[in-house]
Structure to design on (241 residues):
């Protein structure tokens, strides 16, 4: 890689890290398409997942008291159960109709919540949490897109920004551990990846610091608007790619 390409990669990682640190998700959504111009997918995906797991570990350690651990336990169980189902889905089910359906649902939900601002409190139960976790685990294992069900769940819980952020990062640790382990077993931890990871950690930490500051100062309504806006972009990207 040329010096310009290195600078480009580090800038992308910084921006994606800051967004994920601030709102709890979005690192892969931002970084993967942009890194694809200079890094192969087999390197970019493990790199993003490694940095994301490190970030989530730091955030959960620092914000452990703000995590909704009840939701993490119930949703996490569903996540783990959904991973094998996602593998089967990837092998046997048609990809486009499933992703297009998910994209349409995400877009409609984001548009609805951007227009309809009244609270829609979600009454949770163990069965519902398990189902949403299962859907997230399935989509994550099958298509690498496990965030939308969890984001919708978190927004309907009407958590304050700090709880929203910390809980999503705790859930990301559950699935991220298995993802990075799978990458290592598959032989994707190459010398190029480790070199990029070593260079990426400092900018990830800078992005983490900036995002933490933004999360603390964002008004709840501004935070909600930002999350629904990012969710809308995610839905559109799912639909067109």
């Amino acid at each position: 890689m040329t010096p310009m390409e290195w600078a480009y990669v580090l800038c992308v990682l910084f921006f994606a890290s800051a967004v994920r640190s601030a709102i709890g998700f979005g690192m892969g959504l931002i970084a993967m398409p942009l890194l694809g111009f200079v890094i192969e997918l087999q390197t970019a995906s493990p790199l993003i997942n490694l940095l994301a797991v490190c970030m989530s570990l730091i955030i959960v350690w620092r914000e452990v008291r703000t995590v909704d651990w009840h939701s993490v336990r119930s949703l996490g169980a569903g996540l783990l159960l959904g991973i094998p189902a996602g593998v089967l889905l990837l092998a046997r089910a048609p990809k486009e109709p499933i992703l297009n359906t998910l994209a349409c649902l995400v877009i409609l939900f984001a548009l609805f919540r951007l227009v309809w601002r009244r609270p829609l409190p979600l009454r949770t139960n163990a069965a519902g949490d398990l189902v949403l976790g299962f859907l997230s685990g399935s989509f994550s294992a099958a298509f690498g897109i496990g965030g939308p069900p969890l984001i919708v769940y978190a927004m309907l819980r009407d958590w304050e920004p700090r709880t929203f952020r910390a809980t999503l990062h705790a859930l990301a640790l559950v699935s991220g551990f298995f993802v990075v382990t799978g990458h290592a077993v598959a032989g994707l931890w190459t010398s190029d990846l480790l070199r990029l990871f070593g260079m990426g950690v400092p900018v990830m930490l800078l992005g983490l610091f900036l995002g933490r500051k933004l999360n603390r100062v964002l008004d709840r309504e501004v935070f909600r608007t930002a999350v629904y806006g990012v969710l809308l972009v995610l839905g559109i990207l799912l639909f067109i790619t």
